[in-house]
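WARN no homologs supplied; continuing
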Amino acid sequence: MKYFKVAILSAAVAGLAACGGDNDKKSSSNNNSNAAIIENTRSNAWYSDAEAKIAATTQANLNRGAAKNVILFVGDGMGISTVTAARILAGQLKGQSGEENNLSFDLFPYTGLAKTYNVDAQTPDSAGTMTALISGVKTDVGVIGVNENIVRGDCTTVAGNELVTALELAEIAGKSTGILSTARITHATPAATYAKSADRDWEDDGDMPAAAISAGCEDIASQLINFEPNLEARINGVDVDGIEVVMGGGRRSFLPKDVAFNSPDAVSSVEGDRTDSRDLTAEWKTRYPSGNYIFDQTSFDAIDTESTSKVLGLFNESHMQYEADRGNDVAGEPSLSEMTEKAIKILDNNDNGYFLMVESGRIDHAHHAGNAYNALNDAVELSEAVAKAVELSNSDDTLIIVTADHSHVFTIAGYPKRGNPILGKVVGIGSNSPSLAADGTPYTTLGYTNGLGFRDLGNETDADEAYNQAIDAGRKDLSQINTQAPGFHQEALIPLGSETHAGEDVGVYASGPGAALVSGTNEQNMVFHVMNYAADLVNKANSKQVAP
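OK structure emitted
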């Protein structure tokens, strides 16, 4: 039987020169035994090289295992320009000039950068990047919880290439665990904490090709409901009690495609998307009869954090609302900061500590729609959630990391004067009138390299309305346009059906035990190794594993 113990390489090894990408691929066995799963993670070059860097940079005052709790915040698509613009917006909403403001995590004592490329892609996607963050191993675009040796869309290649995540290690170690997202809980970022999938799009069986179903592949929603038995079956000799808190959107992947299973706040005529007739919410309630399944603000507010053992909250058919649009939800839904508070108050009832992943998923979606207003407001709400986590935890025993999976082609440009509205048109120093471009028309501080382009939707707070109009890229006369309105979508240079991710580094902000390991420029999979060192997840999980 193989254990989770990872050999620490020589402290003389520095840097990540060996993390080259495709040339680092290792052959793997198709053996689906526990030994193959663990050995694959241990021997993967991404994993061992990052572990070596931790060993090389660890100082005497960094005590392994000092973190009882770990909270990982992921701002999906929250690149450096998004952080800067959100910081300014938050300050301006408080009556400041804005530039001098700080988001909550700006004040964290340790900061570094993460390189976001996937093994097979210069500009990444969320599946590959989140797998790196949560498992310590970089992988390909579009695959979840597995290494780069699999073939996307071919689930027969998954066996033997599964990776162990920080959340799984925390579960095995006896900690409480939680997953929060404003996106569908089956979407790439949250899914990477618990699922092993050859394709990020297999959120339910209705999304899967017949060949994959015939081969016995399990969709992502089903893997969430079956997390406990799946983990125990995959890793021999462990006993877990399941994820304590799961909250987000994506209810459609848990319900049958039958109007009889519609929720009271269903928007579609048939809410569910499953073709196998399974009601996964009912299956979850059967497995955890003392748990609480909730779907609206009222049931969320009624949760008693001191007596609740399990929560499954699915607040929307698809993604949850943008923060600015949340008041328009049919049955009401909690904010990210409210979910963070509720989750921590439930999870901290465990004397062994907890692991919590919190994703602000809709920053990414607003950027894809070309709407800076919603992207920045969701980033500001992420800052509020981080502030709530800081308030409810102890910096002596809780490591908090804030990062992004990738960035977007979103930029802050021109020469606006200090305090100029970040969502406004550029007004230069010493002027009260908008600056004019060479074509004689004003231009905005914020813009996108590509995407859907200009939209003037007034007070519309749902950024996704942009997809209901034709692509309109290129320059527009903004003289009479209120660019600060929620429904304004910035101009884009290159016409595309959706704005794209970008490939530059993203920030990593850390506070608490082990935070000093966050410095310099690192491969993205280093974030897992910082969490592992701080909480000693591998060794604690290993100590719980027993011989069959």
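Residues 427 and 434 are 4 Å apart (CA to CA).
OK
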